[in-house]
Amino acid sequence: MENPPDQKDSSKEMLQPSSSSSSRRSRANGGLLTMPFIIGNEAFEKVASYGLLQNMILYLMSDYRLGVAKAQTVLFMWVAATNFLPLVGAFLSDSYLGRFLTIAVASLSGFLFSMIELDFTFVDNKKRILQ
């Protein structure tokens, strides 16, 4: 059975690639190729985080002289913040700031926060030494 003369044979067009798509063939980014790296990164991050918790509870109890309950509360808040803040960063990145600006702002704020925390630790240790 033949096609009527006013209709094109669409099966031939579908089999032949168009000139615009064949000239711009590029490899797709992401996908399943990057999944092992993402899963490995998350696994190492969790191992490091759980290793830090064991040392941090001893540090809070010995150097800061916190009780067990207070030290556990501090660590619980730390774990809650580190698990919740990536969701906030993802929302800001997707909705307002974009990927690179979010990474820059988060890196800068993390650096500033750690410097302030280091300063407080130094002042606390200096007070303890002078006593």
Describe the protein.
The N and C termini lie far apart (101 Å). Among the domains are: 51 residues; 34 residues. The protein is mostly helical and 131 residues long.
Furnish the topology, listing elements before pairings:
Elements: H1 10-15, H2 19-23, H3 35-62, H4 68-97, H5 99-130
Keywords: Membrane, Transmembrane, Transmembrane helix
Protein name: Protein NRT1/ PTR FAMILY 1.1-like
Organism: Camelina sativa
User: How do the SSEs run, as a string of H and E?
Assistant: HHHHH
Distance between the termini: 101 Å
The overall strand count is 0
Helix segment tally: 5
In short:
Helix content is 77%, strand content 0%.
Characteristics of this structure?
131 residues, mainly alpha, elongated, transmembrane
